[in-house]
Amino acid sequence: MAYSRNPTCFIAMAFGHEDTNAFYENQVLPVLKRNKIKAVIINRRQSNDDMNIQIIAQLEKADFCIADLTYTRPSVYFEAGFAQRMIPVIYTVRKDHLDNGQPDDRRVHFDLQMKPLITWNSPTDDSFARRLEARIKSTFLRDWAKNQTINEKYEIEERRFKALPANDRLERIRHDAILAFQKLGFGHWSGHRNISMNYWSSYPKSSILSGKINFAYGHKTVKDKFYLVSIQSFSSPTKNELSDLEQVMLGFLPNAAEIAAGNIVTSFYLTALILNLNNLSSSRIESSLPDVIPLEPAQRYYHEAHVLNGLFRVEFLFLSGIQSRLHLKDLLRNQVGNDYLN
Fold first, then answer.
1. Pairing assessment for the beta strands 225-234 and 300-307 based on DSSP bridges
2. Which of 166, 169, 181, 312 could form a disulfide with 307 if both were Cys (CB 3.0 to 4.6 A apart)?
3. 105-146, pLDDT tens digit by residue?
């Protein structure tokens, strides 16, 4: 996906009047062209779709909107309100429409008079073009340039990541996930060969922390709470691998109790973090793990049981469709919640 492109601006305006038509052609359009912004005007597009469908579709694709409130056209208010939920909106209006003595069709509604309106006096009001351009540059274009830089960085990282063999990608995301949990205070890392508990092995700590070993485990104790995380990564886990996850995590109870021996621990929180290069549907997860309960955010589940006079909670967090290490970093930041890690 190419991120480098020119921005688009949806124009919401009461076209069909001599002054607004001239105002757009003489003041608005030149500003957009100078800044390499593509204007989208619904009634000038060739399409067989219903007009409302076109409006919503184009607003959902636009990067920002200019809404001119002159002549108080209801469709402009609708378009501006819809746009404002998703993208920046710059409001303009002919200055006399702010006069409360004007009739309803030439007066800005009260709730929009509070907006930072850019006013114009006539289609030849050159000061308006300067003010509009300054507003676009100081708000939308400033943020657009910043986001383009970030997006281009992501695009480069995605290309590099996808060029690696799958095993190298799996190793890198395991390493990054372990590092993220280390920063949360998890230590005492160990690992085993695969998802079956029959394959415990001793590995050099450096191999585990670098992500070379799948199914790595780390833990920490905070006051009377014991936290353990298991980290595993797949291109796409099989149904059998998913089915084994619950038994493996429940099987950790004796180990968790043994590790926590000597401490006053009343609650055990075990998190299975499953990283997937490919997309993994929730229906596939839930059919493979029928005894777990879904949580928010998506693809987060838990199984809960009371044991040893305390609480033993197993949580499964799936991060799927990982496109790059930067993408994984964002997923971890957004979905690894401090509510159960701290």
1. unpaired
2. 312
3. 788 887 788 889 999 999 998 899 999 999 999 999 999 988
Q: How far is CA 180 from CA 89, 240, 242, in A?
A: 38, 28, 23
* 77 located within any domain: yes
d(CA 261, CA 265): 8
Say whether both 132 and 185 belong to one domain: no
**Inter-helix orientation angle 325-335/166-183, to 10°:** 40
Starting at the earlier edge strand, list the strands of the sheet with 310-319. 187-191, 216-222, 225-234, 267-276, 310-319, 300-307, 293-295
pLDDT tens for 1-58 read 344 689 999 999 999 999 999 999 999 999 999 999 999 998 754 444 567 788 899 9
Alpha carbon distances (Å) from 171 to 117, 123, 234, 235, 333 = 53, 62, 10, 11, 19
Residues 150 and 203 in one domain: no
- CB-CB contact of 298 with 321 (8 Å): no
Q: E-assigned strands of 180-234? A: 187-191, 216-222, 225-234
What's the structural domain count of the chain? 2
Residue 2, domain member (yes or no): no
What is the CA angle 142-154-64, rounded to 5? 35
Domain limits for position 275: 166-341
Residue 100 burial (CB < 10 Å; 0-12/13-18/19+)? Answer: exposed
